[in-house]
Design goal:
This protein has 474 residues and is of the alpha+beta class. The chain folds into four domains: 108 residues, Immunoglobulin-like, CATH 2.60.40.1120; 68 residues; 122 residues; 136 residues, Glutaredoxin, CATH 3.40.30.10. It contains 15 helices and 15 strands. The N terminus is likely disordered.
């Protein structure tokens, strides 16, 4: 099993050299085919890999881990520059004296472990999965192109189903024989919950609800050892992405539930809160902004709740939330009073109340992206949008140059019926603050009650979103 990690330059800059003194650990690692090379010992933590040490391998391919300090239990990896940073994994922590021997021809298949139950179990499973993976690949290749009604398709598909059952049983039995091992703990975390027979055939949501309620039965979120695996946060994110309804209130409740399970252990609490917060801070899904605001207000705004960030960073988060809150999805949009292209005073509220839906666009004729998007909006409006309902466009420019703005409007035929073009040539209008205008274009869809239905979307998505809203309300 060949694996690749970071670039050599990054690894070597971040690494430090293991001291060759006698210590509590005496772990011998021999790799046939490695000569006079410094391997990189790294570890998994939350969602990343970090360097712990470098280990020197002599001319015979022998290296030692001889740390005197306690090594936190977890899954580690050894990467070899001579092998283009191919690596193998190993479990370190509680077992302090053992040996591992392998060959560069196949780091996993050739692995021999002595005096380490954890790594024996680990490699027993890896080797088994290599063989099973080969069989599974062959079956999947054979089934390609076959008609689903073909008897051969059915036979091969049943073999795949049976193979999957055998894998689950093998791994479950292996873990059950060693219930106190770290391997067993990690395996149990990775295993899906077995769903019992539905006691009520009319309850179509039973399986989903049971899985959601019991998802963490085999995963102790206070066990720090789990954070030093490559799968810990991915399991939590899978729960949030696939086993939580995709509505902000549901996601917020699920997040609070997960955090509460980790809270008894400060380190795990910090990992879980930080990782989930970063996930939604980086998300481009518009409903996730509500999740971000929920986490910021409930956790990050309070020093006694999140005490590991600098106060300057906390202030920035709080300020960002303050700017976002007025235009969150579901809120009534702030009104805008502004002059149109003829100097006549217009208000967003009056325009919205006169339409079934209003497309609010904040743009600038000098913005490259706006120059592309505005003509596209024009074409979509004429070909699809205006026939859906009584829909208007309220377009506000952020620029201060009246002539350039009007020139672009007329040259690109943006002066359409039910389009209102406005500008604040003095730069004094508060719409920039109310709508947190830091870039353009910004597209927001409002209903007749001025409620924000969608925001910061691509113009290509407008027809679909409006069609959905119109059909939903029929």
């Amino acid at each position: 099993m060949i694996k690749y990690i970071f670039t050599l330059a990054v690894l070597l800059v971040a690494s430090t050299t293991v001291k060759a003194d006698d210590g509590a650990y005496d772990i011998k690692i021999e790799v046939n085919g490695i000569h006079n090379d410094n391997a990189i010992l790294a570890y998994y933590f939350s969602e990343s890999k970090y360097i712990r040490d470098t280990i020197h391998f002599d001319e015979n391919g022998v290296g030692f881990i001889t740390d005197t300090a306690e090594i936190p239990t977890g899954v580690y990896l050894l990467a070899f520059p001579q092998l283009k940073l191919n690596y193998f994994e190993l479990i370190l922590g509680e077992e302090k004296r053992f040996s591992m021997k392998t060959d560069t021809s196949n780091l996993v298949k050739q692995m021999i472990v002595e005096n380490s139950l954890e790594n024996e179990l680990f490699y027993q499973n890896l080797k088994y999965m290599l063989d099973v993976g080969k069989t599974s690949h062959e079956l999947k290749e054979s089934i390609k192109g076959l008609d689903k009604n073909d008897s051969e398709y059915e036979r091969l598909n049943q073999e795949l189903v049976q193979l999957d059952k055998e894998v689950k049983k093998y791994r479950k039995d292996l873990a059950a024989k060693h219930p106190d091992s770290y391997y067993s703990t990690v395996f149990n975390m990775m295993e899906d919950v077995e769903i019992p027979e539905n006691p009520n055939p009319n309850d179509s949501a039973f399986a989903y609800r049971y899985y959601q309620n019991h998802y963490f039965d085999n995963m102790d979120l206070t066990d720090e050892r789990l954070s030093r695996t490559p799968v810990f946060m991915s399991r939590i994110k899978k729960f949030l992405d696939y086993y939580t309804l995709p509505y902000p209130d549901s996601i917020n409740a699920a997040i609070d539930r997960v955090i509460a399970m980790a809270e008894p252990n400060y380190n795990m609490y910090q990992i879980v809160v930080s990782s989930i917060f970063n996930k939604y801070a980086k998300s481009n899904i518009m409903t996730h902004e509500l999740v971000y605001v929920h986490m910021a207000k409930k956790y990050y705004a309070h020093p006694e709740v999140v005490d590991w960030i600098e106060e300057e960073q906390r202030a920035k988060i709080v300020d960002l939330v303050r700017k976002k809150e007025p235009t969150l999805l579901g809120n009534i949009a702030p009104d805008i009073v502004i002059a149109d292209i003829e100097g006549k005073t217009r208000t967003l509220y009056e325009e919205a109340e006169a339409r079934d839906y209003t497309i609010l666009v904040i743009w600038n004729s000098g913005c490259g992206h706006c120059k592309t998007e505005m003509p596209i909006l024009r074409d979509l409006y004429e070909s699809e949008i205006k026939s859906l309902a009584n829909i208007g466009v309220f377009a506000i420019s952020t620029e201060l140059e009246y002539d350039e703005w009007t020139k672009f409007i007329f040259e690109n035929e943006l002066n359409k019926e039910n389009w209102v073009h406005c500008i604040d040539i003095y730069g004094s209008n508060m719409f920039r603050v109310k709508y947190d205008v830091t870039s353009t274009p910004i597209v927001i869809i409002l209903d007749k009650q001025k409620k924000i239905l969608a925001k910061r979307i691509n113009v290509e998505d407008i027809p679909g979103l409006l069609s959905y809203e119109i059909n939903k309300n029929k």
